[in-house]
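ARCHIVE CARD
Drawer: 12
Card no.: 0347
Subject: one protein chain, sequence and derived structure
Cross-reference: see card 0346
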Amino acid sequence: MKLKYIVSIVICLFAVTVIFRQDTLLPRRPKNSSFLIGFKIYPQQHEFQQIYKDSFRPFLIDIQQIGCNAVFFPVYEYQTAFYHSQILPYSNDLAISNLVDELHKSRIAFGIICPVFLDPERIQDRPDLIPIDQNGTDDYTNWQKMVCPSDSAFRKQRLQLIAEIVRKFHPDYLNLDFVRYPCTWEEIRLDAAPESVRNFCYCPRCLDQFQKYIGNSIPSDSLAVRSKSKWIDQNYSTEWVAFKTDLIADFVHQASYLAKSISPDIHIIIHTLPWLPDLFGNGILSIVGQDMQKMAAGDISFAPMLYHDILGVEPQYIRKYLASYSSTNYRLLPSIQISSLGNLDTLTVSEFASALEMAAAPPSRGIILFHWSSLSETHHPSAQTKLQIIADFIRTANSQ
């Protein structure tokens, strides 16, 4: 199905077009659409719970009325499961199983988001999981508290959790999020100097594994971490990047193998950073360890988080990013933001329409919208207009 990029902006910015909700789910099978258009939702967030505290049915009716054919959501957060788990403690304040049942009945495709190495709770009793940067610093400076990805016990638990989730819910998609080294990319300007970006991980476990990887010893343990990181950069920089990307790709392959051994038709989606190779000294590899070529073995799709407003760039960056992969066979499902973060939405209707158009450019295979709760009319008066733009876009695309 060939998409034309026809998001028509003939909408008065002050006019609000309401999508009328029907009282029954539409008799369609949207999961058969070849071009994926879905929403991320976060049922654990207070706003979502307040809107749909009695039933998820109104949400599913809205989704089908708009024409989206997929929904993506987590079923655990850190060390707490939103279902009866044999691995994590259970939080019974979310009716996730009911949501999954409704999705199966309505035949809306769904993906389960698994935040892999994001876990501020686990580090409380495992401080050795706290990653160390190139300067020897192990301080967390913001909300993003990721663990070091080299610990075998943590990796094993996450793989067991993924297997349990696939076995219990049989999702259409398995979305691996935070499957990378720590980096709060949302706070880094794209024109920042590469050396100003924190680079992980130089903890004793990582350094020990790297010595085995290269078959050589890092000079004396008496050296400070900063000296060791400089020594590695001067002598084994290529091997260090290969070590990091191998570590991430290996987890992706294991998770994919496990998931497909349970549910052969499941599709794997990797959430990736929105960095082009020319940023931060190929930071997508050297800083976060996400090598698409290594991870792409098997049925793997990539969902670059092309949140242009967060990045501080124009929507055209989305098309530029996608165009850079036009000569590859990677399956790309760009994720774009609907609204600005925070209580005040400064992302205009026309800007969102432009981002939606850019995200459909080849070689895009679909669009993931971030995220449903940000369309609450309480904080974002333009929500209904943006929903109508999405609905018009899908309707026109399906008619081509």
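Annotation on reverse: Confidence is low (pLDDT under 50) at residues 1-32. The chain has one domain: 30-399.
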